[in-house]
Design goal:
Blueprint lengths: L1 H21 L9 E5 L11 H16 L3 E5 L12 E4 L11 H11 L5 E4 L17 H12 L4 E3 L3 E3 L10 E3 L2 E2 L6 H4 L6 E3 L4 E5 L2 E3 L1 H7 L3 E6 L4 E4 L14 E2 L2 E10 L2 E8 L13 E2 L2 E2 L2 H12 L9 H25 L1
Parallel strand pairs: 1-2, 1-3, 3-4, 4-16
Antiparallel strand pairs: 5-10, 6-13, 7-9, 8-12, 10-11, 12-15, 13-14, 15-16, 17-18
Helix pairs in contact: 1-8
Length: 341
């Protein structure tokens, strides 16, 4: 009888440990990546040199077996059959997302098994912008992050790094990268990525903007990918104050982070970057001002990770607690049976 109880406890424990593996990612045969190219929205995407970078990106994704769609508008209809959506940096306020666009993105994302890449730009004031307010650069993508239920946000500021850059502090090159756990699937072989004139990623919790570390510690589904060195500095170019940091603050700031969000029985995933994948200078560069970069490696691995469909099981901590309870109960049963002999 005692051996039978032990065997049962062992089987239960094995089943619990195997449960997360049962929800491991399964890649579909053919995935569709949509790029938001709504006319007038994405910064400088029509300029020849940046159009060439966009075509290079599309060519690489197509070579990986993905179908790439250029969206001239965002709606429920245009998002049908789409697995991943890329949001680039906005040129000006006229590119703001309309309520029905935000709603369409949220509904699409909440179907589960979707991947959303939200890029942005710093609060640098281009000559054609209002020098007192460039908050749309963070505010518009933040609307989307709020709508999909993310704990990630983009800061209303810029970040510079005097230590890791391509010849100027605003030409930030990732000074740190996360090579641990799930992050390694995205960053492996790509320690150096360009974040040209970027903003950075902060957290959002209980209705407030908070330092990234606060959501990183609280939610196991939040993971940082790239950061500045410890010499990173928060800079403001317009009259709008940062939300979770202060101007002049120094330290290591997050340049890219991901979050997995439960949508029914699956996860949808969001990648937030302080620089964009499309529009103006971007993440996809292999070299900039003489510095070798691994932008394409990062981008390809990000899509591989993002487009892998994962079932949403219980949190790891819950599995651990259940396993402990099973072991304790099994031990208690064994002790009771021994006393009866």
């Amino acid at each position: 009888m005692v051996s039978e109880v032990r065997r049962l406890a062992a089987l239960l424990l094995i089943a619990l440990l195997a449960a997360p593996l049962a929800s491991s990612a399964v890649r579909a045969q053919r995935k569709v990546i949509a790029i938001d190219l709504t006319p007038g929205r994405v910064k400088d995407v029509d300029k020849p040199k940046y159009q060439a970078v966009l075509n290079w990106l599309i060519g690489n994704l197509t070579a990986m077996g993905y179908e790439v769609r250029k969206l001239s508008k965002i709606s429920r209809d245009t998002l049908k059959g789409v697995d991943a959506l890329v949001i680039g940096k906005l040129r000006d306020e006229r590119g703001a997302f309309k309520p029905d666009e935000v709603e369409a993105i949220a509904e699409w994302f909440k179907q589960g098994g979707k991947f959303l890449w939200v890029g942005a730009d710093s609060d640098y004031v281009e000559p054609y912008l209002n020098p007192e307010d460039t908050s749309f650069k963070a505010g518009e993508p933040n609307k989307i992050l709020e709508a999909v239920g993310s704990h990630l946000r983009l800061e209303y500021a810029s970040v510079e790094d005097p230590e890791s850059n391509a010849g100027a502090p605003y030409r930030v090159i990732s000074g740190k990268y996360n090579a641990a756990g799930e992050a390694a699937q995205i960053t492996s072989g790509a320690p150096k990525v360009l974040f040209h004139g970027p903003t950075f990623v902060v957290g959002f919790d209980n209705g407030k903007f908070v330092p990234f570390e606060q959501v990183d510690k609280k939610y196991e589904t939040v993971t940082w990918l790239y950061a500045t060195t410890d010499k990173g500095t928060v800079v403001s170019h317009d009259g709008v104050d940062p939300k979770a940091t202060t101007v002049g603050q120094t330290g290591s700031f997050i340049l890219a982070a991901v979050e997995k969000i439960k949508c029914g029985g699956m996860y949808s995933k969001v990648l937030v970057t302080g620089e964009s994948l499309i529009g103006d200078r971007n993440i996809f560069y292999t070299k900039y001002h003489g510095v070798d970069l691994q932008g394409p490696t990062f981008v390809k691995q990000a899509f591989t990770w993002g487009l892998a469909v994962e079932k949403a099981g219980l949190p790891t901590m819950v599995y651990a607690v259940i396993a402990i309870v099973v072991v304790v109960v099994a031990v208690a049963v064994v002790l009771v049976l021994r006393r009866r002999k």
